[in-house]
Design goal:
The protein has one helix and seven strands. The chain is mostly beta strands. The longest helix is centred in the first third of the chain and has 6 residues. The radius of gyration is 14 Å and the shape is globular.
Protein backbone atom coordinates (compact mmCIF):
# COMPACT_ATOMS: atom_id res chain seq x y z
CA UNK A 1 0.00 0.00 0.00
CA UNK A 2 1.88 3.03 -1.20
CA UNK A 3 0.39 6.52 -1.34
CA UNK A 4 0.41 8.30 -4.70
CA UNK A 5 0.42 11.65 -2.88
CA UNK A 6 2.49 13.04 0.00
CA UNK A 7 1.22 12.21 3.49
CA UNK A 8 1.63 14.52 6.46
CA UNK A 9 2.50 12.52 9.60
CA UNK A 10 1.09 15.15 12.00
CA UNK A 11 -2.26 15.01 10.19
CA UNK A 12 -2.17 11.22 10.14
CA UNK A 13 -1.50 11.10 13.91
CA UNK A 14 -4.35 13.56 14.53
CA UNK A 15 -6.77 11.19 12.77
CA UNK A 16 -6.79 8.66 15.66
CA UNK A 17 -6.39 8.64 19.46
CA UNK A 18 -5.72 5.02 20.46
CA UNK A 19 -2.33 4.25 22.01
CA UNK A 20 -0.17 1.32 20.98
CA UNK A 21 -2.49 0.79 18.01
CA UNK A 22 -0.32 1.49 14.96
CA UNK A 23 -1.59 2.86 11.67
CA UNK A 24 0.06 1.88 8.41
CA UNK A 25 0.99 5.04 6.51
CA UNK A 26 2.73 3.43 3.53
CA UNK A 27 4.78 0.45 2.44
CA UNK A 28 8.25 0.08 0.98
CA UNK A 29 8.85 -3.22 -0.77
CA UNK A 30 7.93 -5.87 1.85
CA UNK A 31 8.02 -3.41 4.76
CA UNK A 32 5.41 -1.17 6.34
CA UNK A 33 5.87 2.28 7.80
CA UNK A 34 3.62 2.57 10.87
CA UNK A 35 2.88 5.38 13.30
CA UNK A 36 1.46 5.09 16.80
CA UNK A 37 0.62 7.10 19.87
CA UNK A 38 2.39 5.90 23.02
CA UNK A 39 1.45 6.14 26.68
CA UNK A 40 2.12 3.77 29.56
CA UNK A 41 3.73 0.36 29.32
CA UNK A 42 3.56 -2.03 26.41
CA UNK A 43 4.32 -5.72 27.04
CA UNK A 44 7.55 -7.76 27.13
CA UNK A 45 7.90 -9.45 23.73
CA UNK A 46 10.36 -10.34 21.01
CA UNK A 47 10.38 -10.69 17.25
CA UNK A 48 12.38 -13.80 16.43
CA UNK A 49 12.66 -13.12 12.69
CA UNK A 50 13.05 -9.37 12.34
CA UNK A 51 14.67 -6.26 13.75
CA UNK A 52 12.34 -3.43 14.83
CA UNK A 53 13.11 0.21 13.95
CA UNK A 54 11.75 3.08 16.08
CA UNK A 55 11.84 6.84 15.44
CA UNK A 56 10.41 9.10 18.14
CA UNK A 57 8.24 11.76 16.50
CA UNK A 58 7.13 13.48 19.72
CA UNK A 59 7.55 13.04 23.47
CA UNK A 60 9.69 10.36 25.03
CA UNK A 61 9.93 6.63 24.47
CA UNK A 62 11.82 4.10 26.56
CA UNK A 63 12.70 0.56 25.53
CA UNK A 64 13.65 -1.92 28.22
CA UNK A 65 15.85 -4.68 26.81
CA UNK A 66 16.49 -8.10 28.30
CA UNK A 67 19.44 -10.18 27.11
CA UNK A 68 19.72 -13.98 27.07
CA UNK A 69 21.11 -14.00 30.65
CA UNK A 70 18.11 -12.01 31.91
CA UNK A 71 20.08 -8.80 32.46
CA UNK A 72 18.06 -5.69 31.69
CA UNK A 73 18.90 -2.22 30.48
CA UNK A 74 16.73 0.64 29.28
CA UNK A 75 17.30 2.85 26.25
CA UNK A 76 15.82 6.35 26.70
CA UNK A 77 14.73 8.08 23.50
CA UNK A 78 13.54 11.62 22.88
CA UNK A 79 12.09 13.44 19.90
CA UNK A 80 14.12 12.72 16.78
CA UNK A 81 15.96 9.73 18.28
CA UNK A 82 16.07 6.36 16.53
CA UNK A 83 16.83 2.89 17.81
CA UNK A 84 16.76 -0.62 16.38
CA UNK A 85 15.84 -3.57 18.57
CA UNK A 86 17.69 -6.56 17.06
CA UNK A 87 15.69 -9.64 16.19
CA UNK A 88 15.37 -12.10 19.04
CA UNK A 89 15.90 -9.48 21.77
CA UNK A 90 13.12 -9.36 24.35
CA UNK A 91 11.95 -5.78 24.87
CA UNK A 92 9.23 -3.73 26.53
CA UNK A 93 8.43 -0.21 25.31
CA UNK A 94 7.01 2.43 27.64
CA UNK A 95 6.26 6.12 27.39
CA UNK A 96 5.03 9.10 29.37
CA UNK A 97 3.28 10.13 26.16
CA UNK A 98 4.27 10.75 22.59
CA UNK A 99 4.27 9.25 19.12
CA UNK A 100 6.57 6.97 17.17
CA UNK A 101 7.24 5.74 13.66
CA UNK A 102 8.12 2.08 13.14
CA UNK A 103 9.55 0.31 10.11
CA UNK A 104 9.05 -3.45 10.00
CA UNK A 105 8.13 -6.31 7.64
CA UNK A 106 4.51 -6.46 6.52
CA UNK A 107 2.45 -8.63 8.86
CA UNK A 108 4.67 -8.22 11.94
CA UNK A 109 2.57 -8.33 15.12
CA UNK A 110 3.07 -5.49 17.60
CA UNK A 111 3.25 -8.01 20.43
CA UNK A 112 5.62 -10.45 18.74
CA UNK A 113 5.60 -13.85 20.42
CA UNK A 114 3.17 -13.02 23.27
CA UNK A 115 -0.02 -15.06 23.49
CA UNK A 116 -3.20 -13.00 23.00
CA UNK A 117 -4.40 -13.81 26.54
CA UNK A 118 -1.26 -12.18 27.98
CA UNK A 119 -1.69 -8.83 26.21
CA UNK A 120 -3.09 -6.00 28.37
CA UNK A 121 -6.29 -4.32 27.21
CA UNK A 122 -4.57 -1.02 26.38
CA UNK A 123 -2.21 -2.72 23.89
CA UNK A 124 -3.54 -3.60 20.44
CA UNK A 125 -2.01 -6.89 19.27
CA UNK A 126 -2.14 -6.18 15.55
CA UNK A 127 -0.11 -6.11 12.39
CA UNK A 128 -1.33 -2.53 11.94
CA UNK A 129 -4.48 -0.76 10.83
CA UNK A 130 -4.87 1.18 7.59
CA UNK A 131 -5.24 4.94 7.99
Amino acid sequence: MTHPEPLNLAEALASFDEVYSPRIVTSVNDYEVRIAHTLGEHVWHEHTDTDEFFLVLAGTFDIALRDASGAERTVHLGEGDTFVVPKGVEHKPSSTGGSILMFEPTGTLTTGDVAADDVPDHVDSTSGHRL
